[in-house]
Amino acid sequence: MKRIGFIGAGTMGIPMISNLLKAGLSVLAYDVRPEALEEARRRGAAAGGSSAEIARDSELVVTMLPSSSDVDAAYLGPKGVLEGAPAGRLCVDMSTIDPGTSRRVAERAKAKGVRFLDAPVSGAVPRAIEGTLTIMVGGDSKDLEEARPVLSAMGSNIIHVGPVGSGEVAKLCNNLIAGVATVAVSEAFRLAEGFGVDPKVLTEVIAKSSGFTWAMEHNHPVPGIVAKAASNRDYAPGFMTDLMAKDLGLAVNAARELRQPVFVAPAALELYRLASSHGLGRKDFSSVYTFLKPSSSQAPV
Ligand code: NAD
């Protein structure tokens, strides 16, 4: 496989395109924003005029789009992927969207003989740049094997989860845990701080106890404890609060469809939304710690 079609040359798409090019593949890119397409061209990709054209003129199509409605539009809309893709074309959607949309798009694709995998990613921009994303794949395992050499240029852990939609389910489950855990860690460290406990000592204690989590080991919300954490870069992302709110929203909606009760995920979702409406939307999601400040000591208890 030589020519990869890439739709969605945004924050994640651009470094992913660069890695495809570095791996010796050629890339035909498309984005609705001319400036994004220009950046893809600057990195060495050729520019296409529509999603339909990309699907027609490349050997494998990758999409990396903001939300479910964008994936819907890019595949099923006018001049969309399914308008241009010949029967047999393999499409890999790497966006984080709701699993129901992945299944619906896959069914419409199948009706035209077009193959579809959902393959959302974890790792955010630094790992997109390194080409070490975790890629969770839903769909036919033969299709995954065909796509694997291309996915390997962008990620280092490629895991087949199950049928179409299940890659998205895995992604939402992961971010449900990461989002909730970061709120829990932030609350705990605010509490400790209030009682004058040194956060470094508390970290040492918890690292040897049952509360230890990725949120503390790699992305500690309290500055000055984990060198590579976003909290030491004034919470520059990393993974933005707005994206965490989006993913928790998708997880909560998916649970509602199953009529499954969820308690802590909706609470965390509301907290990230509130943090976003108070200016933290484009900061790393661990900035939720800065938002969880105690109120004035004059306030009645
Ligand atoms: P982004 O908004 O920076 O980029 C998306 C690009 O898609 C934009 O350039 C936009 O113009 C383009 N686009 C939208 N609709 C289109 C259409 N119909 N046709 C062609 N182009 C279209 O978003 P991003 O941060 O790159 O995220 C992409 C996906 O990856 C999202 O689903 C996000 O949740 C997921 N994700 C992002 C991160 C991260 O840290 N940014 C990490 C993991 C997963």
Tags for this entry?
Rossmann fold, 301 residues, six-stranded parallel sheet, alpha/beta, N-(1-d-carboxylethyl)-l-norvaline Dehydrogenase, domain 2, binds nicotinamide-adenine-dinucleotide, 9 strands, 14 helices
Could you characterize what this model shows?
The chain has 301 residues and is α/β, with parallel strands linked by helices. It folds into 2 domains: 3-163, 3-Layer(aba) Sandwich (Rossmann fold), CATH 3.40.50; 169-291, N-(1-d-carboxylethyl)-l-norvaline Dehydrogenase, domain 2 (Orthogonal Bundle), CATH 1.10.1040. Helices cover 50% and strands 13% of the residues. It has 14 helices and 9 strands. It has helices spanning 13-22, 34-43, 51-57, 68-76, 81-84, 99-111, 124-130, 141-152, 166-194, 199-207, 214-217, 241-257, 264-280, 288-291, and strands at 3-7, 26-30, 46-47, 60-63, 90-93, 115-118, 121-122, 133-138, 155-162. Strands 3-2-1-4-5-6 form a 6-stranded parallel β-sheet, with helices on both faces. The chain has a 3-stranded mixed β-sheet with strand order 7-8-9. Helix 1 (13-22) links the parallel strand 1 and strand 2 (26-30). Helix 1 (13-22) runs parallel beside helix 7 (124-130). The longest helix is centred in the middle third of the chain and has 29 residues, at 166-194. The protein binds nicotinamide-adenine-dinucleotide (NAD). The site of nicotinamide-adenine-dinucleotide has 26 residues, from helix 4 and helix 7.
